[in-house]
Amino acid sequence: MSATYSEQAPAKINLFLHVTGKRDDGYHLLESLVCFTATGDVLSGECRDDGAINLTITGPMSASLALEDTDNNLVVRAARMLQAESGTELGADLVLDKRLPVASGIGGGSADAASAIRLLCDMWQLDIDQDRLAEIALALGADVPVCLHGKTCLMSGIGEALTDLPDLPPIPILLVNPGKAVSTPEIFRAREDEGFSVSGLWDVSRVFTSGASLADALSECGNDLTLAATSILPEICDVLNALAREEGCLLARMSGSGATCFGIYDTDEQAEKAARAIAEQHPDWWVSPTRIVCQEARVLSNIGASFPD
Ligand SMILES: C[C@](O)(CO)[C@H](O)COP(=O)(O)OP(=O)(O)OC[C@H]1O[C@@H](n2ccc(N)nc2=O)[C@H](O)[C@@H]1O
Ligand SMILES: Nc1ncnc2c1ncn2[C@@H]1O[C@H](COP(=O)(O)OP(=O)(O)OP(=O)(O)O)[C@@H](O)[C@H]1O
Fold this sequence. Notes:
32% of the residues lie in helices and 27% in strands. It is of the alpha+beta class. It has two domains: 5-164, Ribosomal Protein S5, domain 2, CATH 3.30.230; 172-293, GHMP kinase, C-terminal domain (Alpha-Beta Plaits, 2-Layer Sandwich). Strands 1, 2, 3, 4, 5, 6, 7, 8, 9 and 10 form a ten-stranded mixed sheet that branches. A hairpin with a 5-residue loop joins strand 1 (5-22) and strand 2. The protein is globular and about 55 Å long. The two termini are 28 Å apart. Residues 65, 68, 72-75, 102-110, 112, 143, 184, 256-257 line the site of adenosine-5'-triphosphate.
């Protein structure tokens, strides 16, 4: 029996997201403080010697993806790109445990693609240098390089320029999604008439020791996609209000192009209490109390990796 490899695919949070310009090809220049959480998908796989790539999707958020052609899944696309790059004749039976809501601003698909790159490089023993892997990641999506990097960083360019920042402590964070997908290109199109933020606002040397100090610094920034996203999906305002209303919430903000929003807290108890209250009022929303993870999210080969539920 062949070994089972496993990789976590943590949710990506844009703690702030500024749109600072637009390139001639239509992609937007961004500046974003990105971190990762202890909540995420899990990808596992076994090696095949016939070159086939098979993907099975399980888990609470698998329904919509299971209806799509798996050839379009970012996990399969990442695998095919690595096969083409390396010339390997190996294949894989992959299982994606989908726990993150799809098309929700927390980079679920991008995190899965990044975890596929990590898992397959390990399983197929590929020797592809980091710069080339970063190019492959960017070809899969603007958020894939930062997910492959997996560490708290300042993301700029269209998503490819990453500057490491001091680790954040394991700050409690609550993720809430209203259960409706939003399309990233549609949100960028909807902000066409808005101006651009200035770049270079974030002091990259700042060190944070608590949720309160982080929330205080973040209050000087924002998410420049919020207006566009709430005009398309007004429920995002309900999510932001629900988070802000609960005791202990230091900052409530949307991540990425939405619709997932996050709240920052000082203690796990506050985040969990808020989660219970919001889940009770909105049983159809996805509510996930978690923490910022501070170390590089990788190296789980050959073990049955799983996130806490
Ligand atoms: C908004 C963010 O979530 C912030 O982290 C990401 O930039 C989105 O990254 P992503 O979902 O991986 O995006 P992609 O799949 O590469 O691009 C989807 C579409 O979003 C728009 N897009 C995306 C990234 C970017 N820097 N500028 C853009 O204008 C483009 O219309 C593009 O066709
Ligand atoms: N493994 C995957 N998981 C989620 N979506 C996927 C996956 N593979 C392909 N997709 C497609 O990618 C689209 C965007 O999904 P994703 O969850 O990455 O969006 P997102 O959370 O808005 O990401 P971002 O924050 O990077 O904009 C979905 O509509 C889906 O059809």
